[in-house]
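ARCHIVE CARD
CATEGORY: sequence design from structure
SOURCE FIELD: tokenized fold
FIELD CONTENT:
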């Protein structure tokens, strides 16, 4: 059996619960949706489109107000684009309003951070708003693929700052904590970047949209860890597709107070 192409998400799924990996990537059962998933997609698209805006009519006096208005309009538009997916969740209007407002708060928080960075850069070139806007705009949603390690993934943003390369992922998580699964995701990005460009990015990190940007300096150990983890998964998923070879890992992530694993009904971990 050939190694399947993995991703940071599939690798972390396997590490959390091999049976969940099996349902998702081997049996390919239909995946459930959730407001967190849909809202995450909406927030990502909003930020992605932000960098495509035309700022030719912005001035030094009104750019701050315009950036704020623009991000709000973009979120409204994206919320509309996802209407079908939001409707399919059958949430009450109150709940939907709550999530909309929460997402608005996140993208405004992000915009405040962007404005700070933009204003800082503008000090070096006060007459060139558009030029500065392009300078601080990252490369977005770039697909990276390692032929050697059979893994791929989309990087939310690659920014170039003071001659450094920064890889950034956007997250809507409640806790602004670069936990192990996120460290592994970033390490895999680091490895794929190095394989493609022949050099490591300088930093990797996460913009927690409710909070702030957190960056880590990259190290060769990150790449080593990424390779080891990828090889461990291939060593398992590359030799068997038998359900019984994918053990259930029964933890509080199977069912919690307000939700459950999307495969809970088919898996029946507690019966
Ligand atoms: S319900 Fe629990 S054991 Fe079953 S697939 Fe989901 S996480 Fe794994």
């Amino acid at each position: 059996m050939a190694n399947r192409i993995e991703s940071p998400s599939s690798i972390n799924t396997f590490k959390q619960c091999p049976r969940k990996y099996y349902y998702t990537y081997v049996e390919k059962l239909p995946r459930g949706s959730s407001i967190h998933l849909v809202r995450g997609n909406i927030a990502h698209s909003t930020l992605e489109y932000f960098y495509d805006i035309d700022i030719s009519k912005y001035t030094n006096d009104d750019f701050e107000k315009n950036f704020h208005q623009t991000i709000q309009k973009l979120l409204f538009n994206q919320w509309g684009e996802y209407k079908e997916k939001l409707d399919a969740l059958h949430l009450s209007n109150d709940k939907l309003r709550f999530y909309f407002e929460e997402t608005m708060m996140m993208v405004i928080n992000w915009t405040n951070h962007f404005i700070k960075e933009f204003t800082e850069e503008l000090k070096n070139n006060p007459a060139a708003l558009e030029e500065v806007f392009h300078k601080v705009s990252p490369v977005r949603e770039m697909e990276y693929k390692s032929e050697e390690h059979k893994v791929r993934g989309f990087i939310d943003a690659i920014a170039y700052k003071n001659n450094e390369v920064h890889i950034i992922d956007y997250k809507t998580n409640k806790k602004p904590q670069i936990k192990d699964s996120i460290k592994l995701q970033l390490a895999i990005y680091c490895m794929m970047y190095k394989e493609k460009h022949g050099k490591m990015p300088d930093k990797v990190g996460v913009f927690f949209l409710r909070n702030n940007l957190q960056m880590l300096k990259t190290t060769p150990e990150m790449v080593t860890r990424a390779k080891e983890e990828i090889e461990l998964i291939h060593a398992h998923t590359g030799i068997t597709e038998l359900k019984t070879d994918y053990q259930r890992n029964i933890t509080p992530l199977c069912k919690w107070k307000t939700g459950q694993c999307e495969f809970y009904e088919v898996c029946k971990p507690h019966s």
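CARD ANNOTATION: The pocket of iron/sulfur cluster is lined by residues 17, 19-20, 23, 248-250, 253-254, 261, 263-264, 267, 269 (CB under 6 Å). Residues 93-122 form the longest helix (30 residues).
SHELF: design records, drawer C
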